[in-house]
Specification:
Helices cover 38% and strands 15% of the residues. By secondary structure, the chain is of the alpha/beta class. Helix 2 (63-66) links the parallel strand 3 (45-49) and strand 4 (71-75). Helix 6 (161-167) crosses helix 9 and helix 10 packs across helix 14. The two termini are 30 Å apart. Mean pLDDT is 82; it is low at 1-18.
């Protein structure tokens, strides 16, 4: 376990080239909606779940290496990428259901889940709804821990956000946004760490249908006050499930203090901090990310779920106070988040 951030050298070499065949999009129709996904490799199943406004392409450079030892499935969530974008339920619970159904059509009964940002919330919700199908959890800069989130996302959740997003498609706006992102990077701001990904997000909303799906997804998890769902109130249910948290210490979207709160709330979890990385640590340091995933999946046994163990955990319930833990600022912050969680629910 890594409670204290460790120094790691930055990689100097790129990962090996990506083969077109390994990254080709496939499609399955589930409940009448076309869902896009990438699938490669053989071995235990490893599911990669992207964040809001993103797609399976975010994992493109990692899939070939992960596929050496795993069957890798990277879906485009409904409303994202090349999947359909209907007027539908975009809650984390609905995403977990959709992921289960897609995996069932592919013959995947159990898997290790890697979720980034919103995808981390979906992975945690999947583990809560379908613990018997979840072997391990790897949560990367995950949403659903504390209320804090980048003010830009809070603003986009407000009425009229569709007009603001549409304005980004006006002639010349892409250049202006690019200049602002470049300036943030030059000034070495935390938000600047993720400037390339922010530009990709703008490009991923080319039409009204895409923008509507994005806003529906965002409003399901964020409002003007911040994040509106939580996984803290049921983190104790991960007891016995191998869980690893990865976070960039310069994450300007979901602050790194959420990583420590989640780590403290999840019994037996492991925490890895990527120094100098923003919201996309697997882009900032892909070699370390791959090494950690391979080591974690190779040295831990899949969760041995049983109905009796699950019932025992539910009856015991979530620890209600910080009794028995040191009275640190981190513990007090965790207790505050747990109190806030009483008005928020991941279901």
């Amino acid at each position: 376990m890594a409670d204290v951030p460790r120094q790691h050298p930055r990689p100097t070499a790129r990962l090996r080239p990506v083969g077109d065949g390994e990254l080709r999009l496939h499609h399955r129709v589930v409940h009448g909606y076309r869902r896009a996904y990438r699938m490669a490799g053989e071995g235990p199943a490893l599911v990669l779940i992207h964040g809001i406004g993103d797609s399976s392409a975010t994992w493109a450079e990692l899939i070939p290496d992960l596929a050496r030892t795993h069957t890798v499935i990277a879906p485009d969530l409904l409303g994202h990428g090349a999947s359909d974008k209907p007027r539908a339920d975009y809650s984390v619970a609905a995403y977990a259901n959709g992921l289960r159904d897609l995996l069932s059509t592919l013959g995947i009964e159990q898997a290790t889940l890697i979720g980034h940002s919103l995808g981390g919330g979906v992975a945690m919700q999947f583990a809560y709804q379908f613990p018997e199908r979840t072997e391990r959890l790897i949560l990367v800069s995950a949403g659903g821990v504390g209320r804090e989130v980048n003010p830009v996302l809070r603003a986009v959740s407000l009425p009229g956000a569709d007009l603001a997003l549409a304005a980004l498609r006006l002639p010349g706006m892409r250049i202006q946004v690019g200049l602002v992102a470049h300036l943030m990077r030059l000034l070495d701001t935390d938000l600047g760490q993720d400037a390339p990904e922010l530009l990709t997000l703008v490009d991923a909303l080319p039409d009204a249908t895409s923008r509507s799906a994005f806003i529906r997804t965002l409003r399901a998890v964020v409002d003007w006050r911040g994040q509106v769902v939580t996984m803290l109130d049921r983190c104790y249910l991960t007891q016995g499930m191998p869980t690893m948290l990865m976070w960039g210490d310069r994450d300007s979207v979901v602050p790194v203090r959420h990583a420590y709160g989640a780590h403290e709330a999840m019994p037996g979890s492991r925490l890895e901090i990527f120094e100098g990385a923003g919201h996309f640590p697997f882009h900032s340091d892909p070699a370390r990310f791959l090494s950690l995933v391979e080591e974690f999946t190779g040295t831990t046994s899949p969760a041995d779920w049983s109905r009796e163990h699950w019932s025992d955990l539910l009856r015991a319930g979530r620890p209600g106070t910080a009794a028995g833990r040191p009275d640190t600022a981190r513990s007090r912050a965790l207790e505050r988040d747990l109190r806030e969680a009483s008005e928020r629910s991941a279901t």
